[in-house]
Amino acid sequence: MGDVKRQAGNREKFSFGKWLAIYSVLFLAMALVIWRPFFLGNKNMIWGNDGLYQTYASMVYISKYWRGVIKSFLAGDLTFPMADPSIGMGLDVLTTLNHYGFGDILEFISVLFPREKMEWCYNFLACLRFYLTGLSFGVYCQYRKKQFLPSLGGAFVYAFSGFALYAGVRHPYFLNPMIYLPLMCLGAEQVLAGKRGYLLAIMAGISAWNNLYFFYMETVLTFLYVVARMFSLSPSDRGEDFGLWRKKMGRIFLAGCGWYLLGLALGAVVSVPYLFALAKSPRTEANIMFPNTWYAYPIRFYKRMFSGYFFPVYSADYWCVLVYPFVAFFGFPVLARWKKERENLWLGIWFLMLTLILWLPIGGLVMNGLIYVGHRWIFGYSFCMALVFVLGIEKAKTINKKGLIVLAVVFCLAAFAFSRA
């Protein structure tokens, strides 16, 4: 019996190693195809607007800053300069550069590159973030015991979603929350399973340290994820007494909040000063108004966004860049059978929650920190869609003709809307 368990454990370990190896090879092949136009055109991935004057300039400064800190440490006089008028975007180093990667762990790699090679570093880190995005999704799937091939495909659906390709080139650090979100949800899963939430605390701390703006979005997305997941732990499906189940869920929720607050405390040294600076920023007073109301976008926007699920459509001002492969929608016929397969109900609920937020302007306002309407949070939507893809591929043999016909009709309508957009 012990030999059987050891063999099973070895197969599981080998499975992840095999998954990682295949993912790495396929990612390299796809990267060569996707970024081939850059090489042929002798172009780099530094966007000519904010990418050059903000993101790249900040990375150069951050690299210089940390090299200076290391030199002061080696000289026996460790110092962390907190003010510098030469930045050009603000006096305070921490609050000015936090949004541009000052607290980003990956930015420390730039210390290894000399000033004249910083352009290479920028491109390398951009590609690395895409790789880590898919890897993070794979780690989540391995923990949730998803099948090998569906989780492999889902990693690419997630890593090369429309938002990732659009934002990852213009602002590479926009991919950081895509790396952290699956791990935060994984940490939440551990808490729901009654385990210690070390991973949740660590990821919350890293996210808060990295970028408070995106950390806020990750917090809301993870909270909604937990609420949806609790539907799969319903006492009616597990034969539990409702009163005992309610107390159990209450304890788990409070434990999760405790681990989350611990992570928040770990990142407070960066997030708190940035929060005070953000409150005084004139950008927080900006509002983008609409021809209709806060509860509805213009009709033209909905047409473009509907076709944007399948085709590359960018809705200006709102960051609604979706674009998923057609096979990513195979999971919806499975979700429609929620009465028979209640273990998948939570994913349908989470998708409906996020879709409601996406399709209402007030949802974009709340997810953007009540500053203005924006949907930079849709990296979470891409995570949800990648999970729908995994479910659809796992259950592909159970999808009937009716489900496929409905999907085909939806795709044709999206194609028609795209032709008229």
What do you see in this structure?
With 421 residues, this protein is mainly alpha-helical. It contains 19 helices and no strands. It has helices at residues 2-34, 36-40, 50-74, 93-97, 118-143, 148-159, 162-170, 176-192, 198-210, 212-231, 235-238, 242-266, 268-279, 299-308, 331-335, 345-359, 361-367, 379-394, 401-420. α8 (176-192) packs parallel to α10 and α14 (299-308) crosses α19 (401-420). It is globular. The N and C termini lie far apart (63 Å). The model is unreliable at 1-14 (pLDDT under 50).
Q: Give a quick account of the main beta sheet: strands, pairing sense, barrel closure.
A: none
Overall pLDDT? 83
Say what oligomer this is.
Answer: single chain
- Based on CA atoms alone, the radius of gyration comes out at 23 Å
Uncertain regions: pLDDT < 50 for 5+ in a row?
Answer: 1-14
